[in-house]
Each structure stands twice: as C-alpha cells, then as structure tokens.
Amino acid sequence: MLRQALATALLVALLGCASTPPPERAPSVAAATLDWRSQAIDAHIEERILALDPKNVSDSDVRQLLALGPTPRIVNLHGGIYPVHLVMDSFARFLVGMGYPQAKLRHPGDGRRSHSPYEDSRQIAGLLAWYYESEGLMPMLVGHSQGGIQLVKVLYVLAGSSGEPVRVWDPMRDQALPRTTIVDPTSGLERPVVGLKVGYAAVVGSGGAALLLPNQWEMVGRLQHIPDSVDDFTGYALELDLIAWDLPGATASYRPLGTARVRNVALPAGYSHVFVAATSHLARDPALREWINAYVPGTQAAPPADDASATNLLFAADIWYSIKQHWVLQAQQAIRARRAGIDEAGPTRLPAPESPG
What we know:
alpha/beta; Rossmann fold; five-stranded parallel beta sheet; two-stranded antiparallel sheet; 9 helices; 13% strand; disordered C terminus
C-alpha cells in the first residue's frame, strides 16, 4: 500500500505536465500508403526474398532486398509523459538507420512516428485493420512504458474482449468509417476487424505505476496475460525498474492465454526506464550496427563496447532480430499469396525457437 501511495503521489506530480505532442506534418508520407501489389517489383528480387532465411538476415538482405519488397508497417506507441514521445522517435530513427523504410514508420495522415497511450484502443485496432486492408500486410507493434500497456489493450480489443464490433479507422481523414469489416487482402473475403491477428508485438518497461492511471485500470491483472490476437510477443523488462516495479529476480513475466508464443527478455539493471528505447545513436556507429545485425538471441558474443556509446545495445539488437524475422515472413507470405491467389490464414508463424541463454 505504501508503494502504491508513493507511486500515486509521483504520478499526480508528473501528470501536471502530461500532454500529447503536436502532430508532425509529413505530406509525402501519404504516397507510401499504397497496396504493395500495385507497385512493380522485379521478379528476381521476389525470388531472392522468397529464398531468405528469416533467422539469418544480413544488412545487405535488408537494404538490397527487403526494403524493395512488401514491407509491413510498424506502429509504435510511446509513454504517457511529455516529451517521452521523443524516445520512440529515436527508436523509429534507429529502425530507419538499420534500413527500414521511413514511410512505413510514419502515420500517413500527420507524419508522427508514434501513438499516444491516451488514444482510444478501439481506434488503434481499427487503424490496424485499415492498414491491413489498404496495404496488404498486417502491422507490427512496439510499445514503451505506458505505450506497452496500451499495446496489450489493443490486442485484447482485436481478440474481442469487449464483445462489441470495432469500426475501421481511416488515418487520412482521422475518423471512423461506417463499417466494422474489411475485405481481407489475402483472401478477398469480407471479415470483421475483431479476430484479426498481429504477427509480432513487443513491449518494454510496461506496468507498475502506469496501471494506477484511470485509462489503464482495466489492464490491472491482465497486462501480463497475452491473448491469441498476436502470434509472437516479446516482453522486455529491466532487471531494476522502479517505475515499472521490477526488481532483481522479480521482473514482469508475460504468459500466453492460449496460442500466442510469448518470450520474456531481461535487460540490464543499468538501463533507464525512460530512455531504454532511445537507440538512434546505435545505428550511426558502423561497428555497433554490424554487431546488431549479427546478433542472435541466446548467443554469448560480447558487445564491441562497454560505454555510453553502446547504451541500450541489447534491447536494440534483440528487437531488430525479431523485426527482421517477421519482415521476411510477411514479405514471403505476401509474395506467395499474390502468386498463388489463395488464402493463407494470418501471419506465418516462426518455427519454435531455441531457448535463449
């Protein structure tokens, strides 16, 4: 009770400066919101993408193949205290530095690189449906701090936890459409928004004090239980995080409610809850970028540096590994579906991974 009282007092003080950052205009982003099937892709590039091993993707594979083919959007959700959105802005710039197309990281309406945890979770779920229908690939999700709580809430919405239909949300007009179904771009059949499945989602530093906020009360007791509306989920927790209430030996442990494959990763206690996703500096260092691209979960290879230049390196490398995997899987699935003209039910799942060390 004392810990909760102290956390509540801290939140009251912090929320006095909580706000949503002004939208960042990027008119050119709208042009990228196209069904990839309308774009000309060299048949040789497609064949090389189909031949890729999702668990062994090099820098050249990313830049010379994947970036030229079908690319799923990444929807980032930032924490709730202004200006913490800049941390997820840094994460988006890290992804761009590693070769991810920038247009697939920006909101097509106003150009922002992340969503607020104060947005309606049903709106975000409807937005994911719009992306899937319009672009032909299901987005990946990454949430930091309270944004991670919101991410899991969105997964519950997609799983039908409310028992109510969810309307498709148009980001270009920033409004709900008068329908709760989409035309599945893979099968060509009409289907409801509820029941859609995300291929990959990850959260970092989520839980703790943020669950005391009224907009997150419904996630108390549910945050660590991951529904079936995602195939692969990674929960990152700092070994020492007083804000998320994680202590050495007692970090948050995420568990599947059913079929979702859930992985927990402990990050060093020296990482900062606020700045753990600030990673753009890593992509600017050639040596660190090479180490990140070569990283495989469970390997014991030492990082090339143990100083401020390598801050948040483990988080960046681990999540980039998973993003590359699911980028390959979705690109391959999309190419095969277009060629075969058949329905493939949801994002392709990875083979069961080896237990990380």
